[in-house]
Design a protein that fits this description.
120 residues; mainly alpha; elongated
C-alpha cells in the first residue's frame, strides 16, 4: 500500500464522517426551526458524491494501468526489482574480489574461464 492510497482513504473516511455530522446538524436545524436549507443540502451531498466519483475513477484507472503493465511483462513492484538487482551486484562484486585485478576478472569473464579460475 502506498502513501497515495492511504491519503485517498483518509479523504474518503473524513468525507463520510463530515456527511454524517452534516446530516445530524440538518436534523437538529429541522427540529429547532421547522424547515431546512434544501439547496445547501443538495449542494453538499452533490459535491461529496462528485468527490467520491473522482476518487473511484482514479482508483479504477490505477488498477487498469497495473493490469496492463502486468500483461506487458513489467515488474509489479519496482522496489523489489531494484533490491533484487542490488543483490545480484553484490554477488558480482564478491566474485570480483577473489581476483587481484579487475582487468584479469574482465578478461577471464570474456574468455569464459571465470568458473575455472574461481575454483582454483
Amino acid at each position: 500500500m502506498t502513501v497515495k492510497d492511504d491519503f485517498m482513504k483518509k479523504i474518503l473516511i473524513s468525507m463520510f464522517i463530515f456527511l454524517c455530522l452534516f446530516t445530524v446538524a440538518m436534523i437538529v436545524i429541522f427540529l429547532i426551526t421547522g424547515n431546512t436549507p434544501d439547496v445547501l443540502i443538495g449542494a453538499v451531498f452533490g459535491a461529496c458524491m462528485g468527490e467520491y466519483s473522482i476518487c473511484g475513477l482514479i482508483k479504477k484507472s490505477k488498477e487498469k494501468e497495473k493490469t496492463e503493465r502486468m500483461k506487458e511483462g513489467y515488474v509489479e513492484d519496482p522496489e523489489n526489482y531494484f533490491e533484487d538487482e542490488y543483490e545480484e551486484d553484490e554477488g558480482a562484486v564478491a566474485g570480483a574480489a577473489s581476483f587481484e585485478c579487475v582487468d584479469d576478472y574482465i578478461s577471464l569473464a570474456h574468455d569464459g574461464d571465470i568458473e575455472q579460475e574461481a575454483e582454483e
